[in-house]
Specification:
Elements (H helix, E strand, L loop, with lengths): L1 E10 L8 H4 L4 E18 L5 E4 L3 E4 L8 H9 L6 E7 L10 H16 L6 H15 L7 H8 L3 E5 L5 E5 L4 H9 L1 E5 L7 H13 L1 H22 L6 H15 L6 H12 L4 E5 L6 E5 L5 H7 L4 E3 L9 E5 L1
Helix pairs in contact: 2-3, 3-4, 3-5, 4-5, 7-8, 8-9, 10-11
Length: 326
Amino acid sequence: MIIAKAPLRISFVWGWSDLPSFYRKYWGAVISTTIDKYIYITLNKKFDDSIRISYSKTEIVDAIDDIQHDLVRETLRDIWIENGIEITSIADIPSKGSWLWSSSCFSVALYHALYAYKRQFVTAETLAQKACNLEINICKQPIGKQDQYASAYGWLNIIEFKPDDTVHVNPIICTKETMQKLSNNLLMFYTGITRSASNILADQNQNMISDNEKQEIMKKMVALTYDLKKELENNDLNNFWNILHQNRILKKQMSGWVSNPQIDEWYNKAMEAWAQWGKILGAWGWWFLLFYVPQEYHKSVCNALSDLRKIDFEFETEWSKIIFIH
């Protein structure tokens, strides 16, 4: 038996700069960190020669080609595994309908588990590249690259997307006290709202290709990424919320898809309760709200959003890893 886990991530300053329609013309960048919420993949040799896959549904098939789950089918084709295997996935946070982190973390963890099943070592870079190729090129999902790299590498990084399709991952160097203060000042809430990613991404890809004004907005958001990097490396969080607020304003100019009246109502309630900044996590899913709130105002914000479920989390320092092998 093999058990692999891949951490979920949250991003701070970002637009859609990890989409090839933008970074192949300019370059993209994001600052993100992984958190202590995971997707787990369990692999085990099956008694007979069939393939059993358990996720939100269960498939039992006789051949790889019969698998309905695109990511599992194509990963098994890539990392050839003979019949007679059982694959199970479990997530700490729900992901149905959201591109918050589900498919990319799933792909990273699945590749990691399959390499371990074949007793082969794999690097974080290989995991990220494999997951990107699987989702973007093979399965034709209209997504970017940040989730795969964030989950594969772990921790707090600036991730840069270059016009030649290379990706550079560099850690943000700051003190433990700065990281702890940042973690202490973040509140996450589950909204239960979902939305399909495809319309949003089609909209953004079209904006990046044909709209010069939207391209200039994207450049400003990329520039804010480097402003935030400097703030963190100077161990100064005084301007942290303001940089992220500027990013939110720019992002709303990119598309009408990035909010809705209910999200705006919750956001305004949190601001009135002394939150300094907030954003939608899940990009396409609208499943979670993340706020930067000084600790003395946590109770006020939680009371203002009492109809939402608060999600406790900590930053994660590790990358995708194998946690059990037998």
